[in-house]
Amino acid sequence: MDPQPLREKVAIVTGAARGIGYGIAHRFAVEGAEVVIADINAELGTEAAARIADETGRKTLAIRCDVANRASVDGMIAQTMEQLGRLDIMMANAGICPFVEFLELDVATWQKTIDVILTGSFNCGQAAARVMIEQGCGGRIIFTTSLATLSAGSSQVDYAAAKSGVKMLMATMAGALGKHDITVNAVAPGIIYTQMGAFHWDVSEHREAFAQTNPIGRLGEPSDIAAAATFLASQEADYITAATIRVDGGRMALG
Ligand SMILES: NC(=O)c1ccc[n+]([C@@H]2O[C@H](COP(=O)([O-])OP(=O)(O)OC[C@H]3O[C@@H](n4cnc5c(N)ncnc54)[C@H](O)[C@@H]3O)[C@@H](O)[C@H]2O)c1
Predict the structure, then answer these.
(1) 99 with 160: CB under 8 angstroms?
(2) Would you say 84 and 36 are in contact if contact means Cβ atoms under 8 Å apart?
(3) Which residue of 22, 26, 40, 145 sits with most ligand 1 atoms within 8 Å of its CB, as the best mutation to test the pocket?
(4) Count of structural domains, the chain
(5) Structural domain containing residue 63
(6) Could you report the per-residue pLDDT of 179-233, keeping only the tens digit for each?
């Protein structure tokens, strides 16, 4: 195994100012990549980029980007090309989960979730693919999906629909891009301890109850997702496309 499998690669990680995206960006840098921290939260993104550069010695670049806005995504790609010279890995990770019960869910909230997760994934995936094809040396596109593509509660109707769309976006993009040596895959996290669900998981009874629902017996960490994403981004995963790696501590196996 290459000690630095992402050496000389340039990666964009969206939603990298905190949580899972931060964990992935940090790991990509450890593995040798130069990393763009792309996030709608510019202040947190700048801090994250500085911390990762400091801890890994790798070049990082913070770019404010709203993945739901195509002009913003195109600008992010252009700035990456201008300042880092190439793009090898697009990790389309940014997402939101408003947790609103189905009967209370209004159209604006529904639309926002679809815009950020589904349209955001399309924007990042297509814009990255165009640049990768132009470069002519293949590439890696990876989406963060969710177990919500398999089962979800009544407060995740918008989220589950959006993530399910990303699952098919991933598969159909893989079909379109294989001939360009671009692989397209997904990582589907189980329950990962981040700000997204902290309101629930900071309650110790909830954490303890959850421990009974997966064979590993703990909540996941961003580093668990980063490990799978790094594998998919590496040369080792050359023959893997249109695949989803479920990283859930085996939760789905227990029904
Ligand atoms: N935490 C979990 O248990 C879990 C489980 C399954 C899937 N996921 C998915 O993992 C991804 C990361 O989630 P997380 O838990 O780290 O959440 P988080 O809320 O901690 O981080 C999300 C990041 O995305 C950024 N972001 C939000 N909207 C954006 C936009 N329009 N453009 C650019 N950046 C934007 C936020 O500023 C934030 O930094 C999401 O796609 C989420 O749906 C999380």
Answers:
(1) no
(2) yes
(3) 40
(4) 1
(5) 10-246
(6) 999 999 999 999 999 999 888 888 888 888 887 888 999 999 999 999 999 999 9
